[in-house]
Amino acid sequence: MRTPEEMMELILQVAKEDDRIRAVTLGGSRANPDCPADVYQDFDVAFYVEDVAPFWDNPAWIAEKFGTPSLLQRPESMELIPPDRDGNYFYLMIFPDGNRIDLNVTPEHYEDDGEPMLLLLDKDGTFPKIAVAKDHWYVKKPTGKLFADCCNEFHWCLNNVAKGIARDELPYAMEMMNRPVRDMLILMLEWHVGVDWDFQVSPGKCGKYLKKYLPEPMYERLKATYSGAEYGSMWRAAFETLYLFGDAARRVAAALGFPYDEQEEKGIEEYMKLVKDGRLCPKGQGQETERKGREKTE
Fold this sequence. Notes:
By secondary structure, the protein is an alpha+beta fold. The protein contains nine helices and six strands. The chain has a six-stranded mixed sheet with strand order 3-4-5-2-1-6, with helices on one face. A hairpin with a 5-residue loop joins strand 4 and strand 5. It is elongated, with a radius of gyration of 24 Å. Mean pLDDT is about 90; it is low at about 285-290.
């Protein structure tokens, strides 16, 4: 595997030898000193050019300059995921030695959005000054409205998890659990970290550093919210998710002076228990579904 120094040398060599490329920046985790360094870090690079057209959808240029990637994605040329259509062209590349470059070929303009960024090359000496704001990565203190909305979204979406299990709709139940419900859980845990660390740390994208900042017992509980595909396992994870969220939310609410809607939590807990125990269907209706649902939780 090529070293980071070798990769940086390659990137700068390509830029220096091409007069159309006027500046180069490095972003992402490699520009952030607070991110732990490892072999999986991407090289998030931007080439600033006057005209993007010659670089647009041109994998032959990529192969000539960087070598043929083992895997290549060109988001701006895809239909499945609508592109941003902002004038930039991205090449996302993984090479045979495992190195990854996310290359953005962009028109000559730069707006400092506060994310860590390093200027690697400025041929004209006119590149705007980059004022790195490290706290851009810190967990942000929520407003009372944002906190309440997170709680409501979390509690509401749990009902879909329960329905999906009861209906034997595994993909749907998993999607609800691991998208809207988990998104809100991770957000609340990030605020919990913020409270404990005075909002001066970053839990990372998707909460990837939560293990570092959460109390160990709470992190163990978080692990228990991930289930297998058996419905019994899913029910246990769903209730653990409910209780973990509630404990974290109470901590955040107390620290920031927000009210926490205990009745809302109680309401979804009672509903989940009704569904789990098969007590919603009128007598004589849905008995077979109820029986199967109970068997799958045993």
